[in-house]
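User: I'm writing a short methods note and want a consistent example. For Alpha-1,3-mannosyltransferase CMT1, I'll paste the sequence; you return only the structure tokens, no commentary, since I'll be parsing the reply automatically.
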Amino acid sequence: MYSFDYGYFARTNGPTGGSTSGSTSSSSVSVIVPPARSGFDSYLQKLHRDMHHEDLGAYCSQEKFSPEFVTSVKHRYASITPGSMEPIFIAINLHNNEHILPNMATQLLALADTLGHDRIFISIYENGSRDKTKEILHRFNETLNTLDIAHRIITDPVSKPEHIHRIEYLAKVRNAAMEPLYSSGEKYGQVLFSNDVFFCLTDVLELLLQARAHGSHLTCGQDFFELRGEPAFYDRWVARDMTGEVLIEELYKISKDDITMAAQMRDRPFQVQCGWNGMVVIDAKVFRGDDGVRFRRSVEGECSASECSLICNDMWRKDFNRLVTVPRVKLTYELRVRNLLRTPKHFPADIPFNPPK
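Assistant:
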């Protein structure tokens, strides 16, 4: 059932034994939680208490936001409802990611509730993990089966062989996650490719909304790490502004380009030459056909580059040149950076959205 409860963990609601997905605050929306989802949430909660002594569900909880902000979110994403968008293909690569998987799995289930269980396909390719990643994915696979959410989850015991070039290998495993789309005749509208980041349902919805608003071929957020006690922009090997320059680590001096900086300081989308930055939405037609774009290693005559940089370059060559970064979508790889970034100083989490323009 559709709701804007951000997909945090299910909780029992009163003596009747009914469940709600979300906060007990007055701003939350009660939804019926299937037993399979409730059991999976209980497993994730225990896992998080054992590993991190915290409930990651609170990260995306409406209890963290003002009622005005929650109302603005509901209004902003009112057009994103079951059946309102073409099916979305979700691709993810994982390796030793037990620390992010409870958050990721919970938010993917929330996305399925929002778009419709028959409107997404989840493809996960994991390999070589030595932590609880495989165990969590096994439980996630069972839950997706019960909830009738289309998916393919592969857990491979083999890690990267030493003799294979790093970018060649990364391109290989990314293409492995994308293989069901390459081989399928189904017409997905968008591809959501996520790195091993912490995110909320609304981060995905914002990327989908901006991709639709701008007609962009690639729409990405921004990812961050900690540098001298402050959040700093992470994906500098890939991200390029429209002048072709590398983005700068410092959050409030991220580009020398005045147009880019004007948008960055106002949390407004801006066009880029290239971006990946932890999470990206790509128009699925980029990958269609025998000559569709694929992840690859640089060839003779090209500079050494990330497989994600080469995707951008190949898109430009094929006239898929509307690439947009959405600074409102801020992603991290570590809990401490997530907590640092979500302070009011760095993220206006409690400021209601203005009407989208």
